[in-house]
Amino acid sequence: MRSYFEPKLAFLGILLACLLLSVLIFSKIQPYDSNLSALIGIWEGFHSVNPGLVEPNSIVFPSGGYDGQFFFLIAKSLYSGCLDGLIVDSFFFRLHRIGLPVLVGLPSSLLGWDHYPAIALFLLWFFHFLSFLLLYDNLKSKLLSFFYLFNPFTWNANLLLVADGLFVSFLVLSFCLYQKRNWIGFLIFLTLAMFTRELGLIIAFSFLVVFVLQRKWVNSLSIALSMSLFVFFFVALPYLPLFEKTALGTNPLHFLDMIDFPFFGFFYSFVDGAKFSLSAKGSIKLFLFLGFFILLCLSFRSIWELFPLFQQRNELSAKEIELLIAIPILLACFTIVIAEQGYWRSFDNLTRMFTLCLPFIVWKVDQKREFFSLSFLIFSTILFFFLIFRILFITPSKSYFLSF
Predict the structure, then answer these.
(1) Are 113 and 275 in contact (CB under 8 A)?
(2) Is the pLDDT of residue 122 over 70?
(3) HSE on the CB side for 143, CA within 13 Å?
């Protein structure tokens, strides 16, 4: 009875998620003639400087778009053979995250680029549901996996057609396959995670450390080669002859442009001009900061628990799962700490930075239930309901026109 009921519960959860997802998608596109291309978030400026890339009858916003447009523009220019002529805000910063454009671009090039948003939605949610099923199977407490299924950070990212949710799906798949000792599947999804977002390199390095300590030389060599492949891609990309005349972008971004001193971004986000300002819209940042504070406390506790392990190398090798779960949590916390004010001023940008940590907190709770881990799961649940309310009732529609 148990073997039948548990998978049935998981698929019922996916069915409920699909029904709710349909409502949210309809709510987001209904003000725009129910055109799915509204989810891409194409800004008039990038539409005008990239003639021919935006499909006819796509929704274009004069007042500004969102990052989903960059993944679309890179995907189409990549498969159309005009990547060297693409103009975005920061070309190489966007191109390093090539995983989503390659994955969604291939079927879009075959079926038609007007189907890009539908294909992107399908693939993003397919990998989220697949990673949920594997996580469900791996956890001792099956119900904990539903915190991941209804993860507000992944839901928001996937509805924006950006890569953060896909990145986490690949990581969850790689961790699950690692626990199942499926080394080939583990390596494939970990490599995909690196090419989807650069943070995957740090997580891959933590696996490399564990494999070296365990003297698993074949696994160590395999993951080192995978990391080297991504590092070569990352470093060599600007020097390829194809991109010699490529525009760096309308506003080229570098790493230092996106960070600030710890917590400066949070405090500066309340300053408009020279005055402190706290609007009703901006007050959600205080709730998100509460979530960050819980995450910060959880990170300090993780460091405290890991510190004795580093003093005894054999102990670290034996408890590798504690290290591997802690690294993504610490990494998510660190990126939020140093985020510049632009991230804190945007609900969408800020919630995307939390995406990485939640499934690993679920794993942590499955091993040991403690106050801060459980508190973060409660925080994420409240935020999930707020996200639904925000999409259905708060987010205003914007002016738009159809591309031609």
Answers:
(1) no
(2) yes
(3) 1
Residue 64: predicted pLDDT: 82
Lookup result for tokens 């079926």: 111
Give the Cβ contact number of residue 135 at 10 Å.
25
At 264, list the tokens: 């400066």
Per the prediction, the chain carries an average pLDDT of 88
Alpha helices in 115-216 (DSSP H): 116-138, 145-149, 152-159, 164-179, 183-196, 200-213
Distances in Å between the alpha carbon of 1 and those of 5, 7, 15? Answer: 6, 11, 21
Query: What's the rounded mean pLDDT across residues 334-340?
Result: 89
- Would the pTM count as exceeding 0.85? yes
Q: How many CB atoms lie within 10 A of CB 404?
A: 9
Residue 347 makes CB contacts below 8 A (sequence gap 6+) with 284, 288, 390
Of 354, 355, 375, residue with least CA distance to 364: 375
C-alpha 133/C-alpha 229 separation (Å) is 30
Cα–Cα distance, 190 to 203 (Å, whole number): 9
Residue 194 C-beta-side C-alpha neighbours within 13 Å: 23
Listed as own residue / partner, the contacts of 115-121 with beta carbons closer than 8 Å and 24 or more positions apart are 116/37, 116/40, 116/55, 116/72, 116/75, 116/76, 117/36, 117/37, 117/39, 117/40, 117/161, 118/36, 120/39, 120/68, 120/71, 120/72, 120/161, 121/25, 121/36, 121/39, 121/158, 121/161
**Six-digit token pair at 265?**
């971004």
In sequence order, what are the beta bridge partners of 402? Answer: 59
The answer to whether 373 touches 361, Cβ cutoff 8 Å, is yes
Residues 6+ apart with CB under 8 A from 135: 145, 148, 172, 176, 359, 362
